Hints:
Helix content: 10-25%
CATH architecture of the largest domain: Roll
Number of strands: 12
Low-confidence stretches: 1-25
CATH class of the largest domain: Mainly Beta
Strand content: 35-45%
Number of helices: 3
Largest sheet: 7 strands, antiparallel
Amino acid sequence: MTMAVRMPYESLRCGRGGDRGAGAMSGDEAGPVLRPGDAETFRQVWRGFGSTVAVIATEHGAVRHAMLATAVSSVSMDPPSLLVCVNRTASAHAALHGRGAFSLGLMAAPHRDLAAAIAESPSAMRFAHGTWRRLQDADAAIAGLPWLEEAQATLFCATDACHDYGTHSVLIARIAGAIGARTTDPLLYCDGGYGRFAPGEG
């Protein structure tokens, strides 16, 4: 399906009795209504920002943990690194912090149902969905990490820094290894639903 971005718009207030004729200059017009910078405004605006769906997994204390995430971004190519934002109430948060390493699988659009099943399952049942492997023959930092075979590509990450901000922890991790290929048909999440990228013409 094609993902449509829906953004809420406020009505415009026009200066000088609403007259926007030839004599009106841009400086004479009151722009869009400034909304408060509170959580509700931010939530409404950011819902229209689409992001690639990733599945994050780790193992700590002989217990596996997995979660879906969209708050992921590249940081640097030297060293190759990324960041992921994790709510401190997430069931995987303590394990991610304790292990200091995780796999990050980039989901492809054809696996929408699998991603949804993982997201909607209780933490103890998430590994019942999909084909999960354990990383072998790797550096000690990432050895044994669980990873999802159905992911288009998987990055194995070792956490270098963790910063708490607001309700979340920001994990900054270097890329220690990778499996798979470039994601050409990524699964996206936007405005509360899953979708896929529709390339423009030309």
